[in-house]
Write a structure and sequence with these properties.
CATH superfamily: Aldolase class I
Shape: globular
Radius of gyration: 17 Å
CATH class: Alpha Beta
Strand order of the largest sheet: 1-2-3-4-5-6-7-8
Helix content: 40-55%
Distance between the termini: 24 Å
CATH architecture: Alpha-Beta Barrel
Structural class: alpha/beta
Number of helices: 12
Strand content: 5-15%
Largest sheet: 8 strands, parallel, barrel
Length: about 240
């Protein structure tokens, strides 16, 4: 029988389980949000929007200098040699997590090239996609089965964990056991309005299903009071762990 999630998440400080996505146009906007959130948030994701600006590594260094952890969500996808070289470079950045995706050769190259404290996370299926979107891409496999296959491949190839919806987190935790990290985006409050995310869950539901970390963007960034929204999520996380 696989280890329980309580064991899987035992080494993750509760305050760090919330990762806030800095999906903003530039350094100025990111800095303003981080300063507004203050000590409420200890972990930030910086992804593709900022990667297309000159500010990416400036922001990464600024966050690290303030004692924050950084998740570099770059979803690296290229030939294995190129991905391996990029992972080696990011291993020197101070980031805690880096995302990759692709076939086993790409995942193996990424896992073999990581160093320092960098953890490599493999993308399974984006939370903006459902079964219909997979079929439109020519993928006939059931979404849950595909997610599980990609997750197993990632761990078998040496990756530290996966990015997966909270809807699949329980199945993945049961299959992967305690050693694999599960990071869940697509977190929305119950009764949320429509957006481009399809497979969403609440923070509590994701954690109860086996996620180690949750990634939250718009529910905090777009809130009337982002700090209060982050505090509410931290209380929700803490309540799950009691």
């Amino acid at each position: 029988m696989p280890p329980s999630h309580a064991l899987a998440a035992a080494t993750v400080p509760a305050h760090e389980r919330l990762i806030v996505a800095l999906d903003v146009p530039g350094f100025t906007e990111a800095k303003a949000l981080v300063e507004r959130l203050g000590d409420t948030v200890a972990f930030y994701k910086i992804g593709l929007e900022l990667a297309t600006t000159p500010d990416y590594f400036r922001l990464l260094d600024w966050l690290l200098a303030r004692g924050k952890r950084v998740f570099a969500d770059l979803k690296l996808y290229d030939i294995p040699a190129t991905v391996a070289a990029a992972v080696r470079q990011m291993s020197r950045s101070g980031a805690s997590f880096l995302t990759v995706h692709g076939d086993r050769a790409i995942l193996e190259a990424a896992a073999a090239s990581k160093g320092g404290s960098l953890g490599v996370l493999a993308v399974t299926v984006l939370t903006s996609m459902g079964q219909r979107e997979l079929e439109a891409m020519g993928i006939g496999m059931d979404l849950e089965a595909l997610t599980e296959k990609r997750a197993r491949d990632a761990i078998d190839c040496g990756c530290d964990g996966v990015i997966a919806s909270g809807l699949e987190a329980r199945r993945l935790r049961e299959g992967l056991g305690a050693g694999a990290l599960i990071v869940t985006p697509g977190i929305r409050p119950r009764g949320h309005g429509g957006d481009d995310q399809k497979r969403v869950v609440t923070a509590a539901d994701a954690l109860l299903a086996g996620a180690d970390y949750i990634v939250v963007g718009r529910p905090i960034r777009a809130a009337r009071d982002p700090r209060a929204a982050a505090q509410d999520l931290q209380r929700e996380i803490a309540a799950v762990r009691q």
